[in-house]
Every structure is written in structure tokens, then in C-alpha cells.
Specification:
By secondary structure, the chain is α/β, with parallel strands linked by helices. The chain has two domains: 317 residues, FAD/NAD(P)-binding domain (3-Layer(bba) Sandwich), CATH 3.50.50; 109 residues, 2-Layer Sandwich (D-Amino Acid Oxidase, Chain A, domain 2). Helix content is 30%, strand content 22%. It contains 13 helices and 18 strands. The chain has an eight-stranded mixed beta sheet with strand order 5-4-13-14-15-12-17-16, sandwiched between helices. Helix 1 packs parallel to helix 8, helix 2 crosses helix 8 and helix 8 packs across helix 12. The longest helix has 32 residues. The radius of gyration is 22 Å and the shape is globular. The two termini are 38 Å apart. Belongs to the paxM FAD-dependent monooxygenase family. GO terms for molecular function: FAD binding; monooxygenase activity.
Length: 465
């Protein structure tokens, strides 16, 4: 079993989580560990292996490190990349910089690897805890009744799943958003797309080709090439046995019907005309690729319904661009934050029984919204930094092209932060100062080491101070 950082008594709250991605699974696991009853509904009929490279940053690794290490951390570590640095080139192959790997830390580990491998580990951990995961349950509609104090969903088959709250972790085309916002909100094209692939290096001839074997001959590597409005990243994993690449480029295609479809290798090669021959050699040896249209969305006005018994989480609330390297991590933070707010609200004697869930959901949004919004901006900032680089200035200061690793983002401890801010943030109408929101370099999070006990004992007047 996991070793939580505090004791969380049973709450009896019934939580219905829609979606078994990283955010949904984390929310369910954290809810279970913090004393809530939970069920997951997932539309796919069987567990499927999807995706390619993904990153779990230290801010999210902190959450996972508090789970059973033999079932999570040890397995993730065996599957992830073990490279030394991120090597950056210009598009024609000139070396620019080696950015060292983020310093290892068992309490705040960073994992880079195949999405399906990582997802399987967390899925199996949820199963080991006995969390019900109902596959093949496609949710048709979301509902809630403030008088009854309940929320529920109805599936395509007419099944009803009711709880004290419903968590919409159903992705970028979330149906939960209609109940939350009161209207249909569709994603729009970001103006960019990504060709992406993951395959066996030896079977594709990567290990023997003089142009490509350097990326696998001595273990895992992480390499990037930056060009005019395009970047090409290559990563090798499992001791150089597997290789993946992504090519981000301009694309104004309509995403009304689909944002992921089979790609054409010849189209990728056209984008990389005149690039480092090593890039083209890797693509030429690729058996197949996916054409993934990047969607975007302006920040939603709210993640919770007016009655605060249904909330959004992960991509349903805030889709991220891959260049943020935070999409999965922020979904994991969401799950931890929500479960912690529910536990603290249940234990808080100043919150009335009928307001336990609404207070928790309002505080969840209050403490997550600005942080997520600032983290989302990193995606566009990094993309523009790479795609519009002034190479004269970059050669004068190569450090300017590095991936940002700001402390407020990477060192955040979601659970401790929520616990420390609960007393002030849970007060209706309390205006939170920016330094309290862990949303930028002005964050005061690292000034504090203490953590309040559970349950918080302050009376209402003290909470307002």
C-alpha cells in the first residue's frame, strides 16, 4: 500500500470519474487513498495501447512517488528513458547546446517514455487497489440536482451512475463541458500539427545505418533540430531498443471530424527538405507515422457547474500543447488537488454537510486555475522560441534556447500546497494574492516547510485572517 503524507479518514463521498486517462486514473487513485468511494467509467471496451512519447515532470512525479513504489515508481523507472542530456541543433545539423537531464530526485522523479507503457502501470495500480473501472461505458449526458445534492451520468445504454460529484476527465472533446458551461464548446485548430512515430530501432535498420546508429549505439538519447517554424525531436528508449520522433509544423487543416489520422512519410520528408541528413534518414526508415492536429482552446471561464457538483479535469478543462511538456503532469496535479480538497472539506468543521462538495470543487478551481493557465502559456512560448529563433543571438547566448525548468512549475508539491492554502482558499469570497497561487516566479510556496494537520482546526474568524 501507499504511504500518504497525512492520515485521511473515510469520507463516504461517492465520486464518479468519467475517463481513464492519466488525469482520470490519478483522480480515482487519489480519491481512493484519501478515503472516498470511486468508480471510473471509460468509453473504450478494452484497454488499448495508444500514443508515443510522453513526459511526467517532477511536479507530477511527486504525486506518484507517494504511491506504492514497487507497483509504480520501480516499474516506471524500468520503462523510461535514461539519457544524459537533450542535444539541440539547428535544422541543418549544427550543434548548439547540450542541456543536462533534470537532476534525479526520488521524491520528485521525472519520467520520459512511451505513453502506453506509463498508462498501463498506473491503470494496473488502480486495479490493484480494487478501484472499479467499467470499460465500454460511453457517457451520453451529465446531470446534477442541487436540492438532492447529487450528480450523475447516463450512458448510451441508459445506465445511470450517481454520486456526490462527477468528474469529467473525458478529454479534449468532453461532453461534461456542456453541463459546466451551458453550451457546446468545440476545440479549434492551433495552426500546427505533429507527425509522430514510435518503432523498434533494430527492425527498422536504425542500429546499422551510419547516419542513425549514433542515436541508439550507446543507450538512450534525446536530440532536437530547430528550423523555421518547424522542430524535429528524436528520443530513444529502453537502452536504444526503441526510437520515437515528432515533427511539429504549420498546419491549418480543419479538425471538425478528426484530429488524429494516419500520416504519410513522404509528407514529412517534404517538410524536412534541406535538413540534416540524419533527420531524413530516421524518417525514411520509419514504418508508419500519425498525423496529429494540435487543438487549442481559450481558457474556459469555469471548470465547475454553478451548483459545484460536477467539475472538469485534465484536457477536458485545459488542453496543452506538447511543447509545454506539462499536459500529462497538470492532469495528474488536478487529480491530486481535487481528491485533497474533497478530504479537507469533509474534515473541516466549519463547512456544513450540504456544502462539503461545493466548497471542495470551488477551492479546487481557485487553487488550480491560474497555475494551469500560466503553465499552458509555456507551450506557445517554447514553440515560438524554437520556431522563430534568431540564431545570431542564440549563438551569443546558447542558454536562451533551452527548455525552461522554472522552480514554481517543476518543484511544486501539489498536496502540501493544497493543505497549506485550504484555510484561506476555502473561504467564500476570499481574494487570493498571486504569490499564493503557485503560478509564477513570485510564488511563495518554497518559503514554507510545515503542513497543517488533518482536519484543520481553525474557527471561521481565524480562517479569514
Amino acid at each position: 500500500m501507499a504511504s500518504p503524507i497525512a492520515e485521511y479518514p473515510k469520507t463516504g463521498l461517492k465520486v464518479v470519474v468519467v475517463g481513464a486517462g492519466f488525469g482520470g486514473l490519478t483522480a480515482a487513485i487519489e480519491c481512493y487513498l484519501k478515503g472516498h468511494e470511486v468508480v471510473i467509467l471509460e468509453k473504450t471496451p478494452t484497454w488499448t495501447q495508444l500514443g508515443d512519447i510522453i513526459s511526467i515532470s517532477p511536479n507530477a512525479g511527486q504525486v506518484l512517488s507517494r504511491w506504492d513504489s514497487s507497483l509504480v515508481a520501480d516499474k516506471l523507472n524500468a520503462l523510461c528513458m535514461h539519457h544524459k542530456h537533450f542535444r539541440i541543433h539547428t535544422h541543418n545539423g549544427d550543434w548548439v547546446l547540450d542541456q543536462p537531464k533534470y537532476p534525479p530526485n526520488k521524491e520528485k522523479p521525472m519520467y520520459n517514455g512511451h505513453r502506453a507503457d506509463f498508462h498501463r502501470v498506473i491503470y494496473e495500480y488502480a486495479m490493484s487497489l480494487g478501484i472499479p473501472i467499467q470499460l465500454g461505458r460511453r457517457v451520453a449526458s451529465y446531470h446534477e440536482d442541487d436540492i438532492e445534492g447529487k450528480a450523475w451520468v447516463v450512458t448510451d445504454e441508459g445506465e445511470i451512475f450517481k454520486g456526490d460529484l462527477v468528474v469529467g476527465a473525458d478529454g479534449v472533446r468532453s461532453k461534461a463541458r456542456k453541463l459546466v458551461l451551458g453550451y457546446d464548446d468545440k476545440p479549434k485548430s492551433s495552426g500546427y500539427a505533429v507527425y509522430r512515430a514510435w518503432f523498434d530501432a533494430e527492425a527498422a535498420g536504425i542500429t546499422t545505418d551510419p547516419l542513425t546508429r549514433e542515436f541508439v549505439a550507446n543507450g538512450d538519447t534525446h536530440t532536437g533540430w530547430l528550423g523555421p517554424d518547424v522542430h524535429f525531436l528524436v528520443a530513444t528508449c529502453k537502452g536504444g531498443k526503441e526510437i520515437s520522433w515528432v515533427c511539429t509544423h504549420r498546419d491549418e487543416a480543419n479538425i471538425e471530424e478528426s484530429w488524429s489520422l494516419p500520416g504519410k512519410i513522404d509528407d514529412v520528408l517534404k517538410i524536412l527538405e534541406g535538413w540534416d541528413p540524419r533527420c531524413r534518414a530516421i524518417v525514411e526508415r520509419t514504418p508508419s507515422c500519425v498525423d496529429w492536429k494540435l487543438v487549442s482552446r481559450d481558457p474556459l471561464p469555469t471548470w465547475i457547474t454553478a451548483s459545484a457538483r460536477t467539475c472538469l479535469l485534465g484536457d477536458a478543462a485545459h488542453p496543452f500543447l506538447p511543447t509545454s511538456i506539462q499536459g500529462c503532469s497538470q492532469a495528474i496535479e488536478d487529480g491530486c488537488a481535487l481528491a485533497t480538497c474533497l478530504a479537507l472539506s469533509h474534515a473541516d468543521p466549519t463547512v456544513s454537510p450540504l456544502q462539503k462538495v461545493p466548497t471542495a470543487l470551488k477551492t479546487y478551481q481557485k487553487l488550480r486555475y491560474e497555475r494551469v493557465k500560466e503553465a499552458q502559456k509555456k507551450g506557445e512560448q517554447v514553440r515560438d522560441m524554437w520556431h522563430k529563433a534568431d540564431w545570431t543571438k542564440v549563438r551569443e547566448n546558447p542558454e536562451s534556447i533551452k527548455l525552461p525548468r522554472e522552480d514554481w512549475l517543476m518543484r511544486h508539491d501539489c498536496e502540501r500546497y493544497i493543505r497549506r492554502q485550504w484555510v484561506r482558499a476555502s473561504v467564500e469570497g476570499c481574494v487570493m494574492k498571486r504569490e499564493w497561487l503557485a503560478c509564477g516566479p513570485e510564488s511563495d510556496e518554497f518559503m514554507y516547510q510545515d503542513m497543517p494537520p488533518t482536519p484543520p482546526a481553525e474557527d471561521t474568524m481565524k480562517r479569514l485572517l
